[in-house]
Amino acid sequence: MPVPDHLLMGLEQGQRWRAEGRYRGRYAPSPTGVLHLGNLQTALLSWLQARQAGGLWLLRIDDLDTPRNRPGAVEAIQADLRWLGLDWDGEPMLQSSRRGLYSSWLSWLRRSALLFPCRCSRRELAGLARYPGTCREGSGGWGWRDRRLPSWRLRVPSDDPDRSGDVVVRRADGFIAYQLATVIDELVLGISDVVRGEDLREALPAQRSLYRALQQPPPRFHHGPLRCDAAGRKLSKREASAGLNSLREQGLDAAAVIGLLASDLGSVPSGTRLSAQELLEHLTQKGIHVSHS
Ligand code: GLU
């Protein structure tokens, strides 16, 4: 089934940007709360890497999972990035305003027989390393049953090198899955490099399987270190792990916060105060390249 013209045009624009060879990075927070120090550290790494490469840094807001969005979070994220001097290129992009694009890709995948409906519940799949293919050959249908819709999964060949299992691209609650939206966006925006937290490394196999299904080359992926709280737990936006507000209340200004994040990354001695721009210059002068695999 050929890809419809309007989808092809978007893909080709992305390919042209990639072919230009200029670094195109993005930071893609979900507006589920204010950015905590871990998010800010990832943002800083992502910004530094893009700016060191003389590239672009786009801001994309991953707000498709509307029940998880928090009022005011989109504005707060932008204000925090600005306060730290992490400037992005162009207008921020809201995934919620791109639903039509994702739905068109979803229909194409479905019409191309690359998807199948799945009615397995979370409970049935709990504890399994990957989806065992339960509904693959079934004729479960795509309509309502027991007041529920199926999720839709990508049929991933069993010899897929990433062994991702069949990836959910539309959730049973009707939301477009993060995996599909992010892959479509990286392609259409011509993203060359994705820098994100180590916690998202587990999303790689699913995303790689999607790139393969779409026959498109993936961007380069980099995963930065994760920050934990004093008890060693991963920070969480939803649990309102301390953000910039609490640091400001303690009297820290932007130079102190950048110094704090940079010293935790081992880039400067602790107690250093400097702006994001100064950090960029400092690293570049010392020939230190920010990159994580
Ligand atoms: N929106 C995702 C998050 O905030 C990150 C997506 C990504 O960087 O791929 O966890």
Structure overview:
By secondary structure, the protein is α/β, with parallel strands linked by helices. The chain folds into two domains: 5-99 and 178-292, Rossmann fold, CATH 3.40.50; 100-170, no CATH class. 37% of the residues lie in helices and 11% in strands. The protein has ten helices and eight strands. The strands form two sheets. A five-stranded parallel β-sheet has the order 3-2-1-7-8, with helices on one face. Helix 2 packs across helix 10 (276-285) and helix 6 packs across helix 7. The model has no long low-confidence stretch (mean pLDDT 93). The structure holds glutamic acid.
Record keyword descriptors for this entry.
single chain; 293 residues; alpha/beta; Rossmann fold; 2 domains; 5-stranded parallel sheet; 3-stranded antiparallel sheet; 10 helices; 8 strands; 37% helix; globular; binds glutamic acid
